[in-house]
């Protein structure tokens, strides 16, 4: 049954974190996918946790789904320890050879991860390396096995707690057969380990995961910025959204083929986040315009069912988007998303913490928004 316009917009609600530092509405975390770059998201959460701000809703794709599930799938006092346990478990100690060959340090690091995997995350699947034309089956056609990740997540996520819906979790996937994006959320149905595994099934590295009889991959190959999940949500509520972006949409013009390849990946996985926001701003402005127009319609006409049905498309909610962009480091290379080195993880975690702390000090949600704008965007 199609949803009626009346259910599109609810009265503003106060999120569970409002009492902490005066944040209006629900607090939402939006996490992109990006492999090892996701350590930045863990730092973002730590800064929020230290400020006694706990999210009402976490939306994630790929590594963002993993971080999000650990956060939503644990009570507040267990979230940070479980995040640390995950990232300490995937941290890779570099070969001693790197000290002798500093110019090849990144190359050696990438080679070790590609050939050996990450023991608590993924391991090479020997049969897949025999030939890319070998028919292994839909659920096995991948270079790596993610069995270790399943075991890791089952030890870190309390799915019984997750499905009590104390914190909403949404994970992004894409159907292999239809190519359609699909979001699974514990608001509507129970979330299990299969849903998290599906959202991390990035091909051809990781195998697809079957849900409800259909195979799914990592939603990042379709839309790596799941911001649309909250902006299109119904019923809409006033929200302060921490949009954590791991891939820069802006960057310098590349001067070498290697830089071209790196810049191409940044643009691809930033997933047109800026254009999505611009489109949503237009839509939300129209909702506010409809709401305002209702004041100029005579009472006799405004109270008619036909006019009320049209006016119900209006909305007065405000979305405040706080953009946190993971920084680039001077020694980043094409494969920065598999930089699971202990030093790489620590510096990205620290950067996420520092950036979020500065955003919290800025407290942009205290600004008075334009009454005709549905979305306000803040960057540091």
List keywords for this structure.
two-stranded antiparallel ribbon, alpha/beta, 11 strands, 380 residues, single chain
Notes on the protein architecture:
The chain is of the alpha/beta class. It contains 15 helices and eleven strands. Strand 1 (26-31), helix 2 and strand 2 form a beta-alpha-beta unit. Helix 2 crosses helix 15 (342-362). It is globular, with a radius of gyration of 22 Å. Residues 1-7 and 11-15 have low confidence and may be disordered.
Strand and helix layout:
Blueprint: H1 18-21, E1 26-31, H2 39-50, E2 57-60, H3 63-72, H4 76-90, H5 97-100, H6 105-116, E3 123-124, E4 144-145, H7 147-156, H8 159-162, E5 168-175, E6 181-185, H9 193-199, E7 209-211, E8 214-218, H10 228-231, E9 239-245, H11 257-270, H12 273-293, H13 299-302, H14 305-311, E10 319-325, H15 342-362, E11 375-379
Parallel strand pairs: 1-2, 1-9, 2-5, 9-10, 10-11
Antiparallel strand pairs: 3-4, 5-6, 5-8, 7-8
Helix pairs in contact: 2-4, 2-15, 3-4
The radius of gyration is 22 Å
Low-confidence stretches: 1-7, 11-15
Task: Give the amount of beta strand, in percent.
Answer: 5-15%
Helix content: 25-40%
| Outline | globular
